[in-house]
């Protein structure tokens, strides 16, 4: 018994190259948007909220520094600010998805004056979120620069220059 090696007829493609390319492009775009919605956006939402708290607190503390010509005393962050800044900051802190305590360390503490955030639940999610914030406002190195992320705290050093 021998096997027949007869050639099969060659048929033209059923769709054009443009249509096939568009189909692959649309599928790739859909997978990219799905990946962004599942991985990138959920990481950036809490980081964006934390960034708003740091930015508002920094602005308020620098304003207090220039108005009083001295840094406020060490205290809870909202207590170190005037009533208007404290009210705005309380709203941002309540909207922040990372639970924890916010403090201000005055000029007498080491690495101060600084805003210090201590998370209620330290761990990988907290560190991942604050590393992203570090890339946005500092050098991207969590161990160096003005914004330092430790295993159980984050510190934003302030300067009045």
Write a compact overview of the structure shown.
It is built from three helices and five strands; from the N terminus they run αβαββαββ. The chain has one domain (44-157).
Description of the molecule:
- The protein has one domain (44-157).
- With 161 residues, it is an alpha+beta fold.
- A five-stranded antiparallel β-sheet has the order 1-2-3-5-4, with helices on one face.
- The termini are far apart.
- Helix content is 49%, strand content 13%.
- The chain contains three helices and five strands; from the N terminus they run αβαββαββ.
- The longest helix is centred in the first third of the chain and has 52 residues, at 17-68.
- The model has no long low-confidence stretch (mean pLDDT 81).
Helix content: 40-55%
Report the count of strand segments: 5
Order of helices and strands: HEHEEHEE
Overall shape: it is elongated
How many helix segments?
A: 3
Major β-sheet profile: 5 strands, antiparallel
Quickly give the structural class. Answer: alpha+beta
How many structural domains in the coordinates? 1
Portion in beta strands: 5-15%
Kindly provide the radius of gyration, computed on alpha-carbon positions and rounded to a whole number of angstroms: 27 Å
The side-by-side strand order for the widest beta sheet comes to: 1-2-3-5-4
- The CA-CA distance between the termini, in Å, is 93 Å
Any low-confidence stretches, pLDDT <50, length ≥5?
Answer: none
How confident overall, as mean pLDDT?
A: 81
């Amino acid at each position: 018994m021998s096997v027949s090696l007869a050639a099969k007829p060659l048929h033209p493609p059923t769709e054009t190259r443009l249509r096939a390319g568009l189909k692959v492009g649309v599928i790739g775009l859909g997978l990219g948007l799905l990946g962004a919605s599942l991985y990138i956006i959920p990481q950036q939402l809490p980081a964006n909220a934390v960034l708003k708290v740091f930015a508002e607190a920094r602005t308020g503390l620098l304003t207090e520094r220039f108005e009083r010509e001295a840094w406020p005393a060490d205290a809870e962050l909202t207590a170190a600010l005037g009533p208007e800044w404290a009210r705005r900051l309380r709203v941002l802190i309540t909207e922040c998805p990372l639970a924890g305590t916010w403090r201000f360390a005055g000029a007498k503490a080491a690495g101060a004056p600084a805003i210090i955030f201590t998370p209620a639940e330290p761990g990988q999610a907290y560190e991942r979120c604050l590393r992203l914030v570090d890339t946005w406002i500092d050098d991207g190195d969590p161990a160096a620069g003005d914004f330092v992320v430790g295993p159980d705290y984050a510190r934003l050093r302030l300067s009045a220059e």
